[in-house]
Amino acid sequence: MQTFSNKVAVITGAGSGIGRYLAILLARYGANVAVCEINEAALAETVAMLGDFPIKVSSHLLDVADKAAVEALPGDVISQQGHIDLVFNNAGVTVDSTFEDMSETDWDWVMNINLQAVINSSRAFLPHLKQRPEAALINTSSIFGMIVVERQSVYHTAKFAVRGFTESLAKEFKGSSMQIHCVHPGHIGTNILGNARINKSEESANAFQRLVGKLVGLNDDQEAMAEFFQKNGMHPSRAAQVMLNGVLKKRSRILVGTDAKLMDLCQRLTPMHYETLFPLFMLPLTLLRNKKPLKGLPSISG
């Protein structure tokens, strides 16, 4: 893709985090945006933030787990925007629990949002994207689509599947006007931990604390961990910029953050025992972030 100017971009999960800043950056680059979000108040905040840009904004209250709503979305966007050039399947959630203790309801909640919504959206939008001179489908996986940790079986299952699905599409559309991108963020300062569903048993809480302590160097309750996670990760505006740079450079796999690149390297060096290398690579990075948290891009970080 040569430019975002005058393109129309659809973004799910646009009420906060990476999705919100994708919308803002794309607007800055002259793209028209269709912002989609399940939280009406958060969606309104994003729309208000886009008000200073001379672009067209359409607002879509959307539950990505609702298959019929996702199937209707392309028509809704085209009726307001005229066409569609980019689709960012960005919405995501998680549940902290062992597989044995996780309810089927929680399992389906994550799978429907993190995986099935990506598939449904891709199926719905691809026919429209193919009609454009240049277009891009951008699906968000995770670094947890490459490595695994305990108590995240459902998240890993969804994100590994998003990776496989998206990389398969990239093969199928190779040489066409369609760009296919799979994004693997590392520790981004979003509220995914604050919004996570957590098994509240004492054993589960202690195990979750150990898990987060292993990853980000903190051993506390969910609220404190969520605050730490949000404040000490890469600012979502910078993550959004990395993603957009990857689209312009036609990178089919986009790793977001130094930690994502290091974890990917660990997995390549020792595919079955990569966690043994995490302290070597990740501890200096964590200490650096604790000392000097990463800031947002100038003038848009809010």
Automatic annotation (TrEMBL):
Coiled-coil region list: none
UniProt KW Oxidoreductase keyword: yes
GO molecular function: oxidoreductase activity
Alphabetically ordered keywords of this record: Oxidoreductase
Signal sequence residues: none
Transmembrane segments annotated in the record for this chain: none
GO cellular component: a single term: membrane
Top-level lineage group: Bacteria
InterPro entries: NAD(P)-bd_dom_sf (IPR036291), SDR_fam (IPR002347)
SUPFAM superfamilies in alphabetical order: NAD(P)-binding Rossmann-fold domains
Gene3D superfamilies the record matches: NAD(P)-binding Rossmann-like Domain
Family: Belongs to the short-chain dehydrogenases/reductases (SDR) family.
Protein name: Probable short-chain dehydrogenase
Organism for this UniProt entry: gamma proteobacterium HTCC2207
